[in-house]
Specification:
The chain has helices spanning 2-10, 26-39, 59-64, 69-78, 108-112, 116-131, 143-155, 185-190, 193-207, 213-222, and strands at 15-20, 44-49, 83-85, 135-139, 161-165, 227-235, 250-257, 260-267. The protein has 268 residues and is of the alpha/beta class. Strands 3-2-1-4-5 form a five-stranded parallel β-sheet, sandwiched between helices. The protein has a three-stranded antiparallel β-sheet with strand order 6-7-8. Helix 7 (143-155) links the parallel strand 4 and strand 5. Bound molecules: pantoate. Pantoate (PAF) is lined by residues 19-21, 52, 55, 120, 123-124, 142, 145.
């Protein structure tokens, strides 16, 4: 991959990377379209498919992660992807180097999933070294991840431009996610509670009735029998620091619906 990427680099070909863990869906398709726009007609769009073990803090979650490679390749072909980069393994057995970001990755996902962002930052830097992209595309659904990658790219002078593309949603507002396939019919209905909570928070900051907002949102989500809130957080989009909710701040939340952990976020 790296040798081929270097050849393209030498010939001045633009390379745009969409890093994924596979189980591709409409959200990924929209990232691929954004990549094509950035690459232009003559550029190369690379989709990497690699279920990165170092970002899972739960072995069961890693084992259960869906891996429908044939369907993924089909989607890539239909979307006009030039290269699917699907390495079997990316780590030496005795690999001993990691990327540890120490500000943006604290709190929320960083707090709930110990080691997760170290794994994400490390694999994204490795993928960028292998694919040598001019630009790399990430989804806004993983807001904290996108903020982390922007920070790592800035701090380590990665040559790739980091582009963050909007979240794709189902008709009822549920954010597209590879984990949605784990939801049964009833859980799938209850999962709309995440988007509804964001919509409620958005309406509430406009009315100004902010007292106890977080508690009220948690209660309304947990009104769904299968839903259990991991966190609801309001934060500044630039610093990622927790702030009181008001117009323009961002809200993020993580909720277990049955055994499936879902995340979402939106600007208030
Ligand atoms: O968002 C994902 O799918 C993963 O965290 C990423 C960025 C591909 C790194 O493994």
């Amino acid at each position: 991959m790296q040798r081929q990427a270097q050849r393209w680099q030498r010939d001045g070909v633009r390379i745009v990377l969409v890093p994924t863990m596979g189980a591709l869906h409409a959200g990924h398709a929209s990232l691929i379209r954004r990549a094509r726009k950035a690459a232009g007609k003559n550029g190369i769009v690379v989709v990497s498919i690699y279920v990165n073990p170092t970002q899972f803090n739960d072995a069961k979650d890693l084992r259960a992660y869906p891996r429908p490679m044939a369907a993924d390749k089909k989607l890539c072909r239909a979307e006009g992807v030039d290269v699917v980069f699907a390495p079997k393994s990316l780590y030496e057995k005795d690999a001993s180097t990691v990327i540890d970001e120490t500000a943006v990755s604290l709190g929320m996902e960083g707090e709930s999933r110990s080691g997760h962002f170290q794994g994400v930052a490390t694999v994204v830097v490795k993928l960028c070294n292998l694919v040598q992209p001019t630009a790399a595309i990430f989804g806004e659904k993983d807001w904290q991840q996108a903020a982390l990658i922007r920070r790592v790219a800035r701090d380590l002078n990665l040559p790739a431009r980091i582009i963050v593309a909007p979240t794709m949603r189902e008709a009822d507002g549920l954010a597209c996610s590879s984990r949605n396939v784990h939801l049964n019919k009833s859980e799938r209905q209850q999962a709309t509670a995440l988007w509804q909570a964001i919509a409620t928070a958005r309406a509430t900051v406009r009315k100004g009735a902010l007292r106890g907002l977080k508690r009220r949102l948690i209660l309304s989500i947990e009104n769904q029998p299968a839903a259990q809130v991991d966190y609801v957080e309001f934060f500044d989009e630039q610093t990622m620091q927790p702030v009181n909710p008001k117009k323009g701040t961002r809200m993020a939340l993580a909720v277990y619906v049955g055994k499936t952990r879902l995340i979402d976020n939106g600007r208030l």
